[in-house]
């Protein structure tokens, strides 16, 4: 692909540009920076190439990173793991890695700021595509940072909650403090809206306007802006229809096949790094059996095709771990968002049943409000607003748990819905996932570099 020709040029440019060791605010002094759209395209193409090779762990994430997230949650039984040598026992085992994630994301943000703030050409087709892509990637990086390094979003407390340092320009003199969480969410939303305004359609750049809209739906869902989350999720869902049952069985366990429900994905080209990440993920995910609680959840609904696609008779995972954003997630976003709105239970039920009808192959019966199953016993007992689960909300969350199994989603669902504490026994010790562990620590290097500006997350002060 054409962008691979740019990789050497990109590396040369970055070598010239990174005269300062701080990844937050690199600004060359006495050096020449790229000016033309063609020059700047080398920067974007480097990150696109990393995604397509399956080597990116921070923007879209590799299969291996998805497995890391799964080891933090409870769907895979850590107590019964066959081997802890190459996987995390629990989230507390990955504190150092989680700090590195922060630094790499800000490095990507720095590259995007370089394009947004320094490219003289802003009107050519290539320039507009680059700008739209840069705005998308930068906003997605901040979204990924917010999910990991900030507390769950609560509209009533967002102004008092710590957000992120918001670096919006390529300037080494800027040393921003942590904004509040409301400011952070608004910053990301404006960035995604800006990306959408460029209407990127060239799929060689991966981050089309549809991708930006899908991430905007995710963001608005996370920040509990239910109405607008529905609007954007519906628009993308219409363009990327969900898979029918026979399509799902054929596609879900394929490594690289792109089906009509996939909005964006990682690892689309054969490469040694991507193959290593992919093969490692498939091996590591089978070191832990599926937790009995999830087995019991699947048992409630006979003829659910996801059960046989997910694990075998020994409770070992058979579902192939890939990294992609699928339209089925948007259907679940719509269903839950409606469930949070007054007098919209019928609409929520409609989208819940829409997905169920595509996953239950025989004797399918749509739920009605009168025959919803009882609230399923699990770690999550309250919804994103802190309200005890209703039957409808429980059914939606359970459907999401089954649909998104081993796709790196469950950890953030636990965080979004109450940060429940739980423990596992391993190697003769008890490991507790406490509430504070749901938000990763800010790297100590940043705390030391910007004393008084970058405040450490609670629980990691010492």
Automatic annotation (TrEMBL):
It comes from the Bacteria. Residues 1-23 form the signal peptide. Residues 329-460 form the RagB/SusD domain. Its main location: membrane. The keyword Signal applies. Keywords: Cell outer membrane, Membrane, Signal. Belongs to the SusD family. This is SusD family protein. It comes from Bacteroides faecichinchillae.
């Amino acid at each position: 692909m054409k962008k691979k020709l740019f990789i050497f040029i990109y590396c040369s440019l970055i070598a010239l540009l990174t005269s300062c060791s701080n990844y937050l605010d690199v600004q060359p002094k006495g050096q020449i920076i790229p000016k033309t759209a063609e020059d700047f395209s080398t920067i974007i193409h480097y990150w696109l190439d990393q995604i397509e090779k399956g080597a990116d762990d921070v923007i879209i994430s590799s299969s291996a990173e998805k497995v890391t997230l799964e080891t933090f949650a409870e769907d895979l039984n850590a107590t019964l793991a066959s081997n802890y040598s190459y996987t995390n026992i629990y989230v507390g085992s990955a504190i150092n890695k989680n700090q590195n994630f922060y630094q790499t994301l800000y490095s990507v943000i720095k590259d995007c700021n370089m394009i947004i703030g320094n490219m003289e050409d802003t009107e050519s087709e290539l320039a507009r595509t680059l700008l739209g892509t840069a705005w998308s990637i930068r906003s997605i990086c901040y979204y990924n940072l917010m999910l990991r390094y900030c507390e769950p979003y609560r509209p009533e407390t967002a102004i008092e909650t710590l957000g992120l340092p918001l670096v919006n320009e390529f300037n080494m003199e800027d040393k921003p403090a942590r904004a509040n969480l409301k400011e952070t969410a608004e910053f990301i939303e404006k960035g995604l809206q800006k990306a959408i305004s460029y209407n990127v359609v060239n799929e060689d750049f991966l981050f089309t306007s549809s991708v930006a809209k899908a991430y905007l739906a995710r963001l608005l869902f996370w920040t509990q802006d239910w109405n607008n989350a529905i609007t954007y999720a519906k628009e993308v869902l219409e363009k990327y229809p969900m898979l029918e049952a026979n399509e799902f069985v054929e596609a879900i366990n394929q490594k690289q096949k792109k089906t009509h429900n996939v909005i964006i994905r990682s690892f689309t080209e054969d490469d040694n790094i991507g193959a290593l990440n992919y093969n490692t993920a498939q091996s590591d995910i089978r070191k832990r059996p599926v937790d009995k609680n999830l087995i019991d959840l699947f048992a409630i609904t006979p003829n659910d095709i996801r059960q046989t696609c997910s694990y075998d008779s020994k409770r070992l995972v058979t579902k192939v771990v890939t990294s992609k954003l699928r339209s089925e997630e948007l259907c679940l976003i719509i269903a839950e968002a409606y469930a949070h709105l007054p007098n919209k239970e019928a609409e929520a039920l409609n989208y819940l049943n829409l997905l169920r009808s595509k996953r239950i192959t025989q004797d399918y019966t749509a739920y009605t409000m009168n025959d919803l199953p009882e609230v399923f016993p699990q770690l999550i007992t309250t919804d994103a607003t802190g309200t005890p689960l209703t039957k409808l909300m429980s059914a939606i969350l359970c459907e999401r748990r089954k649909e998104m199994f081993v796709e790196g989603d469950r950890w953030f669902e636990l965080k979004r819905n109450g940060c429940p504490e739980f423990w596992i026994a391993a190697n003769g010790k008890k490991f507790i996932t406490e509430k504070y562990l749901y938000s990763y620590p800010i790297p100590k290097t940043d705390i030391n570099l910007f004393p008084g500006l970058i405040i450490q997350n609670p629980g990691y002060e010492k």
